[in-house]
């Protein structure tokens, strides 16, 4: 029996799947999320990056983020200790020039964070408020791709029909398997255990609010990460007798190792301890016809570097605005052809960082030297990655200037309450300088904004222009006002809605 129809079905109600559904619903797309589990309860594993928080802020959730987030350690700021109660043996951070850029690159404070649990809960609430549907305990068993629709066979809800399907169902993706897409290059970087627990450790480990904490002694090599309130996680990376294979630790053994890390037998409520492989790999394709992969289904990486969940959420954001334009008829089907090359480029930057961080930790490389070596890799993977684009080949991250194919840089405007990022996102936006009046009549399809400091931000003349896509990425840049601005805008929009590459223009 054929059940309800949707414009888009998202399989997987993890942080990536629910965030993707939220970005779709926010643009008016009729979306349904299917999840085989009957509950979304989970341990607080991954944490958010500023880019993820920017995306939620861009759809009006700034106040909710203020309520749900807290200040944690700045990225790549860490201490190494013999135990939680012991002295600091080494402190490390990004080189100052990179730390300064991080502090200035976003309207979101660089230390603001929350976990995937809060992301899931917020996205779930907001999807439903925006008219989306979430069906738990609904397992997908088959997928049939047609020329104009996708039929999704479920174990208990019959056949559901949609225009497009998104598999965001994790590293062991059922959707990916049904589509016949391999992950041929999967590599195991490490096998470890991660414990999630409750304990009163903040007074014992005061550094936890400002630093990622690594514990190294004769009994254990692990992390101790604060997860908000009395919640903690620990990656148990090495200990005497550790097997090279994936090994399940008993609760007693896990608590013993945690006590060795803490330095005293404090009360611990162990929530769970997972034995897992820190794998790194990319799906052979992110798409089959009308079906797409996002998050771990498309690219899996370890927690090293802290970008896995965030890269996946950004997949969903990239895909959501494109599908919305296609479904509303403002762009042709070929717009979504750009999804894979763009997100593959972003994922490659994220996975490269994860792999290099793992190797550095495993080799016990001096942490300060490791961070100095990987500073640019982190910035590129977290926020400053670039989609395939023509022109502007030399990109200096530290300049943080407008670049075709990259996210529009953040600058505070007026009294410091409005960011350049607040001017874009609802649709296509043309930003101009003080001499840009000639663009106004040419851009009747666009939201045209004239902003102060445009020349410094854009690297163009005062009469130039920068076109920003609905996802906040720069699509096109004109150094100056051309002779036929209307023709330039029409040509540019036709091209951008028929990617795969963004374009640069001298005007």
UniProtKB/TrEMBL annotation:
<dbReference type="InterPro" id="IPR050641">
    <property type="entry name" value="RIFMO-like"/>
</dbReference>
<dbReference type="Pfam" id="PF21274">
    <property type="entry name" value="Rng_hyd_C"/>
</dbReference>
<keyword id="KW-0285">Flavoprotein</keyword>
<keyword id="KW-0223">Dioxygenase</keyword>
<dbReference type="GO" id="GO:0016709">
    <property type="term" value="F:oxidoreductase activity, acting on paired donors, with incorporation or reduction of molecular oxygen, NAD(P)H as one donor, and incorporation of one atom of oxygen"/>
</dbReference>
<dbReference type="Pfam" id="PF01494">
    <property type="entry name" value="FAD_binding_3"/>
</dbReference>
<feature type="domain" description="FAD-binding">
    <location>
        <begin position="6"/>
        <end position="351"/>
    </location>
</feature>
<keyword id="KW-0503">Monooxygenase</keyword>
<keyword id="KW-0560">Oxidoreductase</keyword>
<dbReference type="GO" id="GO:0051213">
    <property type="term" value="F:dioxygenase activity"/>
</dbReference>
<dbReference type="InterPro" id="IPR036188">
    <property type="entry name" value="FAD/NAD-bd_sf"/>
</dbReference>
<protein>
    <submittedName>
        <fullName>Tetracenomycin A2 monooxygenase-dioxygenase</fullName>
        <ecNumber>1.14.13.200</ecNumber>
    </submittedName>
</protein>
<dbReference type="GO" id="GO:0071949">
    <property type="term" value="F:FAD binding"/>
</dbReference>
<keyword id="KW-0274">FAD</keyword>
<dbReference type="InterPro" id="IPR002938">
    <property type="entry name" value="FAD-bd"/>
</dbReference>
């Amino acid at each position: 029996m054929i059940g309800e129809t949707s414009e888009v079905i998202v399989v997987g109600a993890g942080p990536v799947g629910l965030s993707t559904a939220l970005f779709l619903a926010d643009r008016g797309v009729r979306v349904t999320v299917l999840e085989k589990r009957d509950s979304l309860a989970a341990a607080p594993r991954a944490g958010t990056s500023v880019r993820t928080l920017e995306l939620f802020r861009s759809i009006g959730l700034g106040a909710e983020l203020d309520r749900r987030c807290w200040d944690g350690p700045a990225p790549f700021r860490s201490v190494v200790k013999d135990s939680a109660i012991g002295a600091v043996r080494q402190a490390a951070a990004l080189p100052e020039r990179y730390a300064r850029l991080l502090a200035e690159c976003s309207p979101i404070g660089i230390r603001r964070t929350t976990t995937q649990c809060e992301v899931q809960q917020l996205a779930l609430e907001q999807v439903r408020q925006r008219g989306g549907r979430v069906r738990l305990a609904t397992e997908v068993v088959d997928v049939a791709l047609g020329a104009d629709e996708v039929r999704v066979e479920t174990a208990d809800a019959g056949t559901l029909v949609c225009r497009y399907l998104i598999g965001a169902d994790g590293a062991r993706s059922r959707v990916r398997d049904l589509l016949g897409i391999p992950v041929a290059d999967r590599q195991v970087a490490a096998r470890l255990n991660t414990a999630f627990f409750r304990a009163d450790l903040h007074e014992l480990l005061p550094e936890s609010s400002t630093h990622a904490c690594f514990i190294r002694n004769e009994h254990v090599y692990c992390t101790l990460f604060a997860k908000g309130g009395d919640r903690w996680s620990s990656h148990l990376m090495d200990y005497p007798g550790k097997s090279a294979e994936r090994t399940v630790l008993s609760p007693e053994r896990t608590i013993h190792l945690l006590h060795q890390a803490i330095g005293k037998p404090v009360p611990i409520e162990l929530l769970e301890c997972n034995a897992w492989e820190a794998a790194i790999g990319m799906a052979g394709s992110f798409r089959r016809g009308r079906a797409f992969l996002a998050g771990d289904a498309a690219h899996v990486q370890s927690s090293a570097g802290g970008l896995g969940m965030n890269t996946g959420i950004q997949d969903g954001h990239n895909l959501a605005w494109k599908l919305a334009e296609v479904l509303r008829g403002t762009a042709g089907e070929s717009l979504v052809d750009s999804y894979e090359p763009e997100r593959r480029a972003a994922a490659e930057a994220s996975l490269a960082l994860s792999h290099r961080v793992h190797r550095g930790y495993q080799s016990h490389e001096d942490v300060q030297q490791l961070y100095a070596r990987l500073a640019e890799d982190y910035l590129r993977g977290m926020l400053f990655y670039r989609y395939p684009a023509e022109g502007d080949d030399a990109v200096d991250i530290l300049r943080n200037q407008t670049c075709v194919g990259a996210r529009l840089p953040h600058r505070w405007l007026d009294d410091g309450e409005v960011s350049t990022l607040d001017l874009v996102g609802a649709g296509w936006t043309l930003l101009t300088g003080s001499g840009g009046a000639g663009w106004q009549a040419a851009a009747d399809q666009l939201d045209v904004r004239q902003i102060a400091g445009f020349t410094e931000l854009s690297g163009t003349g005062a009469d130039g222009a920068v076109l920003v896509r609905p996802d906040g990425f720069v699509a096109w840049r004109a150094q100056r006002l051309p002779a036929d601005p209307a023709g330039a805008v029409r040509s540019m929009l036709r091209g951008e809605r028929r990617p795969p590459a963004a374009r640069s223009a001298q005007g």
